[in-house]
Amino acid sequence: MHVPMKARLILGWLLVFSLVTAIGYAQETPAQRLSIAEALRLARANNPAYRSTLNNRWAASSEVVSSGLRLITPSATISGSHMRQQGSSQYYSFLQRTVSTPGTQSLGWDISFAYSLSGQTLADRGLARASLRATDADIAGSATLLETTVRQYYINVLQARALVTLAEHVLDRANETLNLARARNSVGQGTQVDVLRAEVDKGQSEVGLLRANQTVGNQVLVLYQALGVPAPPTGQVVLTDTFPVTAPSLDQDTLIALALRENPGLVALRAREGYATWGVRSAYSQYAPSLFASLGYGRSRYFTANPVIDNTVTPPRFTGWSDTTVSSTSPWTLQIGIQLPIYDRFQRTVTTSQARAAQEDARLAIRGQELAARAQVTAAYQALLAAYQTIGIQQNNKGAAAEALNLATERYRVGNGTFLDLLGARVASEQAEADYITAVYDYHKAYAALENAVGRPLR
């Protein structure tokens, strides 16, 4: 009887532990995996600035539809009216008395159609299409800028995570150094000063790890702000994409030609130039004659009262009021004409001058942007080459510093080196590792800057 009781106790404790483990697992929030493709999708769907730019297309496309309808369809208007007038007192001389007159009222409605065709109407069609193309170019430029920004922030988070890993490694080294200093001090080969210095070094390493983790949290917040969604806790964000370091196999002249063709800023300015060109045509269309036509129809009804006079007696006698309704119909009326503007106090001259100035400004802006694109691509390309070469140099420096640290550690372990030599070698090795990480991510940032200057992804 004792054995089954013990078995039941064991089974009960196993059940309790299983429930506790299940509850704890259920309360854990799953990690949020974020790839660069998912980050770009979230940004395009939620970034407020980008979504605001998308809203401009609705108005531009509506103007295209409206300008097309104005070419082939008339405008239609229907109106109705109701008028009521209060009664008043009126003196009739032949009755030699004042009579209170009743009020009057009227009802009416009419419908009209109007159509006009002018050079302005024709130019508005092209102007609306040019405006839509310019809006689409602005949207494409905004999308490119958003994607470049998200990639930049994504790389910043990866760099901050790499620096956290380095800070953890630095803390592990500080613990090893402290243990080594304590061991040497315990056998009389070291000093308490070395132990205290190692403790200070460990404390500084802990502070460095805290700051590195804080930097990761800040970079995650910046990334999710660009995505347009609330940021989850830093520890729950797992970035799944990495960026390899490869030798740049790009040609500078090809990149410049690509930028001159596809740079979003240039594409938008060329679209704006097309809009300005149609603005000039619209301004000159004010000198052309216009055709207009109108068609209307209406009906009205007037309610009043007329006095009833008995003329059989002398003097005539007022006997009351008789209601009177007057109905009238306005027949269909058609009007067709041509209008030719002759003199408008030089307003058309001012308008055309302003339009031509805007067109010339757009052309100069394109030329300026082309020069800027050439300079940006050249500078970004050279920065990319320099960043790639820097990685190789920093990698060699990291290897040499790691070897020097190993030698300094062994020398201190056997008593041939001082603690200051070991600490100096550690600082140099950690700085070399940090410089290598910085060089790697500077390379990725230089690639992103080159892609931004060209206006499209290059890898």
Describe the structure.
With 459 residues, the chain is an alpha+beta fold. It folds into two domains: 30-73 and 119-287 and 345-454, Outer membrane efflux proteins (OEP), CATH 1.20.1600.10; 78-117 and 290-339, no CATH class. 66% of the residues lie in helices and 19% in strands. It has nine helices and eight strands. It has helices spanning 2-27, 36-46, 48-72, 119-186, 192-227, 252-262, 264-284, 347-414, 419-454, and strands at 32-34, 75-85, 88-92, 97-101, 104-117, 237-239, 290-310, 317-339. The protein has a four-stranded antiparallel beta sheet. Strands 1-6 form a two-stranded parallel ribbon. α7 (264-284) packs antiparallel against α8 (347-414) and α8 packs antiparallel against α9. The longest helix is centred in the first third of the chain and has 68 residues, at 119-186. Mean pLDDT is 85; it is low at 22-28.
User: What's the arrangement of strands in the largest beta sheet?
Assistant: 2-5-7-8
CATH architecture term of the largest domain: Up-down Bundle
Distance between the termini: 74 Å
Number of separate domains: 2
Report the biggest beta sheet as strand number plus sense, adding barrel if it closes. Answer: 4 strands, antiparallel
Fill in the CATH topology of the largest domain: Outer membrane efflux proteins (OEP)
Count every beta strand, where a strand is a DSSP E run of 2 or more residues: 8
The total count of helices amounts to 9
Mean pLDDT: 85
CATH C-level label of the largest domain: Mainly Alpha
* Overall helicity: 55-70%
> What is the 3D form?
elongated
How do the SSEs run, as a string of H and E? HEHHEEEEHHEHHEEHH
The secondary structure category is alpha+beta
The CATH homology group name of the largest domain: Outer membrane efflux proteins (OEP)
